[in-house]
Amino acid sequence: MTDDLIVTPEFVEANLDRIRVIDCSVWFETKPVGASTIHGGRDHWLRGHIPGAAYLHMVDDLSDPAGAYPFAIAPQDRIDRVLSEIGIERGDTVVLYGAGTPVAVTRAWWVLTVSGLDDVRIMDGGWQRWIAEGRPVGTGEERFTPSRFRGVRDEAAVAGRAQVRQAMETGDALLLNALSRPQFEGTGGTHYGRPGRIPGSVSLPANELLDPATGAFASPERMRELLAGIDPDRPVITYCGGGIAAAAALFALRVAGHGDLRLYDDSLLEWSADPDLPMETGPAGDPAAE
Predict the structure, then answer these.
(1) Whole-model pTM?
(2) Three-state secondary structure along the chain?
(3) Structural domains in the chain plus CATH codes
(4) Mind listing the pLDDT tens digit for each residue in 28-41?
(5) pLDDT score at 201
């Protein structure tokens, strides 16, 4: 298993003059039904951040304001604009971190990776670990020389409803649900219109891959254990409620060396809203599942 995509605070501090760093802090306020409310972290960034770090907001900067569902990936020209404003070039090594809800950082990694940034990594443990280790802190605004970023969207990496339905019906790709196990089974937690999962899905909860309290990734040994049943040669489509937790699962699969990965961007916010599309509840394989 390669761990190049996950870097330590030590690596970041040692390479601040050679890498670009982006703070992706936001906080999720979950609801019993539907999409979470997202609280931005710009004020937190102004009070303290890794020296030289820019700030990007998962919704305001990286999502589509005209999207049919919350959190849909922003159009390429919007990504080009926000990255140009903070001086990012396509050849840069970019390290992401956050102080809030950790899956927002993996979501930012996915958006930037499929939008033409070739070398995007995540700092393990986020802001909490950086501070706990006594590393330097910058405050206030940072100044950046604008660039002319022009990325190319990897459209094949973004799955739509038709592809997901085909995978459900034919098994040509593994459908991987990244929500918590109670959400997967339809027994608890937030649901997105109808509880449960897309039939035929398997469960890989993001909160077992990435600690929601600390932003620390599972150990390599634990990661291998969690991914052991997934064929590395089989195409995978990850999904969740709105494409956020799904990015954490996809990131873990990429770290483990899986190649053919797609993310269902609108996820259950779209799927469960269509009464003609089936949902399943109960433990996987339970004959009583609906």
Answers:
(1) 0.94
(2) CCCCCEECHHHHHHCCCCCEEEECCEEEECCCECCCEEEECHHHHHHCECCCCEECCCCCCCECCCCCCCCCECCHHHHHHHHHHCCCCCCCEEEEECCCCCHHHHHHHHHHHHCCCCEEEEECCHHHHHHHCCCCCECCCCCCCCCCCCCCCCHHHEECHHHHHHHHHHCCCEEEECCCHHHHHCCCCCECCCCCECCCCEECCHHHHECCCCCCECCHHHHHHHHCCCCCCCCEEEECCCCCHHHHHHHHHHHCCCCCEEEECCHHHHHCCCCCCCCECCCCCCCCCC
(3) 6-153 (3.40.250.10), 156-271 (3.40.250.10)
(4) 888 888 888 889 99
(5) 96
